[in-house]
Amino acid sequence: MEEFYIEPTKSSPEVEFKPEENELIIKGESYPENSFAFYQPIFDLIETAVSKPDEFKFIVEVNYLNTSSTKSFMNILDILEKAYKNGNNLVVIWYYDEDNEHSYELASDFKEYLELPFDIVAK
Amino acid sequence: MEEMDILQLRNMLNKYGVIMSFTGPFSQGIIEEIGSALRSYLESKSDSKGKIFKVFSVFIEQTQNIKNYAYSLSDKNEQEEILLSGVLNIGLKDKKYFVSSGNLVKKESVEELNYRLKKINSHNKKELASVYREKLLKSDKLKDGEGAGLGLIEMARKSSEKLIFDFEEVNESYSFYTLTIKI
Fold it and tell me: Binning pLDDT at 50, 70 and 90, where does residue B140 land?
């Protein structure tokens, strides 16, 4: 797979895929005008990445998601959860801001829905 | 033609505790700029990060709901009319922040919206959390503006009181819809 990078803007996060590590990083805040259009290439990338059995890491450092970005994240995590249940080796590491109670809630709300390994780590 | 009395307008905004007020078409750029200004202001008042995010999040959902509603209509003139009608006020009254928005809605949209708002208000916080979860997990079909239903529920979850809303008939095509959330 190839490298993939989206620069952060005020309303959209930085997205980086590192093919050697098979690692996807999403960092920043997310409330873009059209969140499904923004996340579609990321859905596609993850689908491709988990189609192989290699270990996959999803690293998140996001403190704010609007509701349509939340739905997009749910979609990403759904893809990962399915792959996990199919026997893929993958992990989610979610960094939260200790000073912001919503930041932890955001992560723990997602974790609740999932069985895949999901670490919530203070940053 | 009578000149507009700006001082009177300012006094009126003051009276209701309005900190920021905007009217006109919300572009994504304007939403981002007002959002940043709002956050800097709240930070300068040393509100907790949690509270700042609550107010910010309600502001984002309110403004994006107006845009999503406008773009859900197929008629370009109607879209424009609705976007132009948008009004947004953020303020502080009786120690509570409020985010108040108003915009035109097509008359035929009123019944459904009114029903949804009433239904949301009939739920307590725990029920709202489970309705939110239900909607979030039903994400097999992702479309633009589909977050809108989720947006109202999210605002209700962040609100310290019930949603305050009203519809007022403007003409044969439109009503004016107002929504206030107190945080």
Answer: low
CB-CB under 8 Å, A70 with B150: yes
pLDDT band at B2 (very low <50, low <70, confident <90, very high): confident
Q: Which two tokens stand for residue B17?
A: 């505790």
pLDDT for residue A53: 85
Whether residue B117 has pLDDT greater than 70:
yes
Q: Which residues of B touch A105 (CB under 8 A)?
A: none
The domains of chain B, with CATH numbers, are 6-182 (3.30.565.10)
pTM of structure: 0.92
Contacts of B40 in chain A (CB under 8 A): none
Q: Are A43 and A10 in contact (CB under 8 A)?
A: no
Whether the predicted pLDDT of B175 surpasses 80 = yes
Q: Tell me whether A21 touches chain B (CB under 8 Å).
A: no
Q: Which amino acid is at B22?
A: F
Q: Which domains does chain A have, with CATH numbers?
A: 4-122 (3.30.750)
Q: Return residues 21-80 of B near A (CB < 8 Å).
A: 28, 31-32, 36, 49-50, 53-54, 56-57, 60-61, 64, 67
| Residue of chain B whose Cα is closest to the Cα of A65 | B57
Taking the Cβ of residue A75 and every Cβ of chain B, the question of whether any pair is shorter than 8 Å is answered with: yes
Question: Exposed/middle/buried for B2, CB within 10 Å: 0-12, 13-18, 19+?
Answer: exposed
Rounded-to-10 torsion of CA B17, B22, B23, B24: -170
This complex has an ipTM of 0.89
